[in-house]
Amino acid sequence: MDFLGTPDIGALVFFGLMAASLVASFIGVFTGAAGGIVLLGLMAMVMPPLALIPVHTVVMLGSGITRTMLMWRNVMRSTLLPFVIGSLIGAALGARVFISLTTMWLEFILGAFILFVTWMPKLGRFGAERGRFAILGFMTTFLGVFVSATGTLLAPFIAASTPDRRIHVATMGALMMITHIAKVAAFGFIGFAIGSYVPLMAAMILTGAVGNWIGEVALLRTSEKSFRLVLQVALTLLGLRLLWSAAQSAGWI
User: Fold this and answer.
1) Number of other residues whose CB lies within 10 A of the CB of residue 202
2) Chain centroid to CA 77: how far?
3) Quick one: pLDDT at residue 189?
């Protein structure tokens, strides 16, 4: 049954994805890292593969917009312009270039990279800030066209650039918003139509906004030390998960 005209999505799945968006947005604010990949994993269980990444991108864009509006006062504005420039280049190439690396190697590289930056924070402060975030904008958007949830790549670098949990979460939301805007443009450029998923995306964006608000309330009641511990644990688990998935794909385990 196609609930509200959404292809291959029944009412139970529709409302389940709304709840998943709320929970993922809360996790994204409270941990500073993991919301996008949690939502992607849940959506992958019930959505057609061809629609998964474009729909996930639009939903995460909506979440990023509401998070940025709620926390704009804490965004590191100096990172925005270089990140925009890098993202535009990454989206343009991502829409055109065929990735020769298999999913297994992408997961392996991302997993190892996240662990290195998380546990060796000086790596997250390489070079001048503007150049660093231009490179991150390119990498996050380019890879995001293919694997969607690349916030885990960005999070350790933001963590290394600011000691304040509110600045971390606000900047993360703003930069991922830029990434998703660039990706939406890329998907439009290559002619992928997702109009039939508008009711689902709108509903998930709405519940995602609620999750962002609840997450911000919880974040403000959390100490800086506790947030840093949660962030480090979350990034470590996500990095290990990617390595485990890569090892399974390679047949090593």
Assistant:
1) 13
2) 19
3) 61
DSSP string, 190-243: TT---GGGHHHHHHHHHHHHHHHHHHHHHHHTS-HHHHHHHHHHHHHHHHHHHH
By C-alpha distance, which of 157, 163, 186 is closest to 79? 157
Residues of the chain with pLDDT under 70: 1, 95-103, 106, 110, 117, 121-127, 147-149, 189-193
pLDDT one-digit tens code per residue, 29-40 = 988 777 887 888
Residue count of the chain: 253
Q: Which two tokens stand for residue 74?
A: 């804490």
* Residue ranges per structural domain of the chain: 3-250
Burial class (CB in 10 A: 0-12, 13-18, 19+), 215: buried
H helices within the chain, ranges in order?
Answer: 11-31, 35-44, 49-71, 80-96, 103-119, 129-147, 151-161, 165-189, 198-220, 224-250
SS3 102: coil
**pTM for the whole structure:** 0.81
